[in-house]
Amino acid sequence: MAYIGTSPANGVRRKHTYTATAGQTSFSGADDNNVTLTYVDTEYLDVYQNGVKLVAVSDYASTTGTSVVLVQGASVDDTVEIIVFDVFSVADTVSAGSGGSFGGNIGIGGTLAVTGIATFTDDIIIGDGKTIGSASDIDAMTISSGGVVDFSVPPTGTGMTRLLTTTTTSAAANVTISNTYINSTFDTYFIMFNLRPATDNVNMLIRYAVDGSTFITDSHYGWASYALDTNTGAYSSNSDTSWRISATPIGNSTGEGIHGYLYVVGANNTAFPSGIVGILNGYNNGSNHVAASFGGGQEVDADARSQVINGLQFLTSSGNIASSEITVYGLDKS
């Protein structure tokens, strides 16, 4: 592209600054700012010593194009400035319009704004306790000095992601996991539970919701629970109003109750029955140890199997749940 005058890629004035040693007369090469002295025409050269302009020939010689030689040696720490008035290319720069690459380190004292995609080929290091976030959540992630990552909100996506940890200590008719935590984000969920009934000699049940709050009470549940004790055996139902997970009734005395885990499988499958499968351990109403495996699924009729699982509810066959501890993880998304 043609320009009237000097191209923006060129300059017309370079300043070279040297700090003299005792008796130094010749100044050349890299200056205090690591810029190498060159010039084309000695007529377009100004030389200053401690701010005083020197006279060409009388005070210095400039004939080589790469050096200036003083007639009188400088004193230690004198400042010699050489101003070159030549048209020259601005070296080692990155174009603002066309872009380019920096080969060395870059320090930015202010804010770095990137509107495109940032690609890093090496490690990214942030200060201890600093945050990574978005415009609406600037501290979504905080990394401590020990490298521990803390998220301000539960992460979503594929993987074993903890979504909820909750504890109740007051008696309630049920303990609910809403569709805030069980929804279309994952298809498989892992749930750990610790439950104690308020009423003695009751069974633990589970119901599912399709919208997080309306729990299905129709006869859409098929289940089986097998006590890991040959004296009590197996129990099942092909059509019930809830899934029963306890093979034997559970006690409510101190230390009694159940704990265990379950998987929610195919939560969003509308062609095949969604369901649960798990293991529990605890004590019954006689303070006898109990353990059981259990599984439950939606009935195979179209009304049941076409429903998604968008929430779970723990309840008992009679009375309230006295206390609970529930942890929910999202595992997989098909």
List the helices and strands and how they pair.
Layout: E1 10-11, E2 14-19, E3 26-28, E4 45-49, E5 52-53, E6 60-61, E7 67-70, E8 79-84, E9 88-89, E10 131-132, E11 141-143, E12 149-151, E13 161-168, E14 174-177, E15 188-197, E16 204-208, E17 221-227, E18 234-240, E19 243-244, E20 257-265, E21 275-283, E22 289-298, H1 302-305, E23 312-316, E24 321-332
Antiparallel strand pairs: 1-9, 2-8, 3-7, 4-5, 4-8, 6-7, 10-11, 11-12, 13-24, 14-23, 15-20, 15-24, 16-19, 16-23, 17-18, 17-22, 20-21, 21-22
The number of domains is 3
CATH class of the largest domain: Mainly Beta
Strand content: 35-45%
Q: Low-confidence segments, ≥5 residues, pLDDT <50?
A: 5-10
List keywords for this structure.
334 residues, mainly beta, Jelly Rolls, 3 domains, eight-stranded antiparallel sheet, four-stranded antiparallel sheet, 24 strands, rod-shaped
Short description:
By secondary structure, the protein is mostly beta strands. Helix content is 1%, strand content 38%.
